[in-house]
Amino acid sequence: MTETVFANARLGSGQLCDITVSAGRIQAMTPHDGHVKMRPDTITDLSGRLVLPGFTEGHVHLDTSFYGGPWISHKPCTAGFDVHERVTFQHDNMAVAEPMEVRARKQLELCIANGTTSLRSHVMVDGSVGLRSLETILRVRETFRDLIDVQLVAFPQSGILKSAGTPGLLDEALHMGADLIGGLDPGSFDRDVDGHLDVVFGLAQTHGAAIDIHLHDGGSLGIFTLEEICSRTVSLGMQGHVAVSHAYALGDVGPDEARRAGERLARSGVSIMTNAPGAVNFPPVALLRAEGVTVFGGSDNIRDSWWPYGDGDMLGRAMMIGYRSGFYTDAELEMAFDVVTSAGARALNLDGYGLAVGCRADFVVLDAAHVAEAVVSHPRDRCVYKSGRLVARNGRLC
Amino acid sequence: MTETVFANARLGSGQLCDITVSAGRIQAMTPHDGHVKMRPDTITDLSGRLVLPGFTEGHVHLDTSFYGGPWISHKPCTAGFDVHERVTFQHDNMAVAEPMEVRARKQLELCIANGTTSLRSHVMVDGSVGLRSLETILRVRETFRDLIDVQLVAFPQSGILKSAGTPGLLDEALHMGADLIGGLDPGSFDRDVDGHLDVVFGLAQTHGAAIDIHLHDGGSLGIFTLEEICSRTVSLGMQGHVAVSHAYALGDVGPDEARRAGERLARSGVSIMTNAPGAVNFPPVALLRAEGVTVFGGSDNIRDSWWPYGDGDMLGRAMMIGYRSGFYTDAELEMAFDVVTSAGARALNLDGYGLAVGCRADFVVLDAAHVAEAVVSHPRDRCVYKSGRLVARNGRLC
Q: pTM here?
């Protein structure tokens, strides 16, 4: 079996070590004392550069980004930010944008080049696109299987109860290969929290699938919905297999109420995804983690109908999470990093994640003294290894 | 006189043109029709890349950054964020960091490489450092005079009334070559709004110097202080020569009160600097601009005793200003760009700023279709021209 030693690798602790990889896994990690004892087939000298575990992208939309294609100007909101209006705008844009397969490939290439080795994408399933988007993204995923692990969420972008035939389409999506069942604002969008969650949790049970629900609803409606999700998660024994994306409500309420909600989420094994948005409240990351909640990170939209921002860089996202959370100390910056790496791996139930013997050899090499510096500087020059193989260097796939 | 034509330059409007430069100024801008009519000494083909005016960095601290040197971990705050505590921490750090001259040079190099061609820096003047920091930064400024225009603010980091001898030191600083007189939280720090402003405006009058006051004080105390600053500005006829940095209070109050304050600021010719901080309220940029206020941008601290963030990239800062302000449309992204370019030039009273005939040939060339895309992508590969001369390319000084 071919054996590669990545010599002179700086770990987050600052320690220099040699990492032996074979069959795509880390076989040994030994202190670097200037020479490699074994006789591996290949030695890659990392010259003391920092080695980080591959980044975990917890939330993108591979089907709807325009990244890499012609610029599409954002449409002003008529009155506040209306999800229905955005869905219509997105529908119009899909007709003029490059083909979905081209766009999805460009987004995956962007994410990989930035160091993401595992990714969760929502894919729209509704009465208008049916299962066509999912078919496309499943095909694209297959062609990228050696470069990145992709989980797909069957995402009812137009609601479940409001969009005729959607429950059946979601069921079919899970048969076809979607890994998770999604949801969207059971209160404000479908106007029926119970009815919406009945379908989501029912399909999850039928298919043994995990759940990841978009919840933009703020304030007390959002908190109420989170409580309902927690309650169902526990009663169905789905702890550790349910995530809520955005959950802005946790940032709307005061710290005491957020702490109570956090305690409930932790006890229920429901994780929370945030991208640290710029202009709305978002979950208090440190407070929730202190309660034991798995808070994971995602880019969310990357240059699409919902906003023009996003660069697919989860190390930059860690910076943004820290910046928005007022994280200043090394320990806080390391917390932001954990959100886009290990916490993401827990939320996504990744197998063999981490920089440790037995884990998959997915890692990123870059210039920084330690994790804290990597977060604030997030240098763009990186080498990305998937299963021990160099897949991207300095922003380009190999 | 040597004449250079920068051919095939894409302007923010999308139009392609040829820019003729001599004696450091733009002499002509003509539509690019595939061939250059004149016979210039040099032709630089910009190949349709986007040309932007040089960026305006409205607020840094050249004396206190650690950027480019060994990492210094941030110290946790004991109880909230206390300015006195931070000043002590900074004092301790200055003893172990690299020499100030080395650090200031690295920060200027960083700013220039990112495309900044004009910059305002505050420099600490107080009883402990006296005028030594200013002497150092004046020396550094002199060695960079062909690369970047630097304005220096004599900044009473330890207060004016609380720090014995500071009024005399500030007076001496203005004699030595500081361009502006600074201030710091007249209410919460010096506990005497009138007494503090008496010294600041008095010295400004004596020296014919402009003013740039740090105002972190939030809520009604901050608004009260802004009103006092406006009142003195008008009564002394200093409209257009007074700036307030941070002014978090404008983000603390509701939109009606912010609008009233904005109307007063506009009428008084007092400009507002923001860096769009991540975890505190900050001035509502679009609302204030609608009232006619000059809102300009700055990095503020770049990796120092106040926070670990900052990269000296004003195009990235425009992205952050847009991200934090909820700017999504092209017009909004262009507004964020204006904050770090033309609005900054107005606030800094720069002579001959802009991409127009007669202006100084300070510009940045990069890959983007237009201003909106440049803001969201803020690509790091850039060519920076100062007075028509290439001074930095792809992150490094030439």
A: 0.97
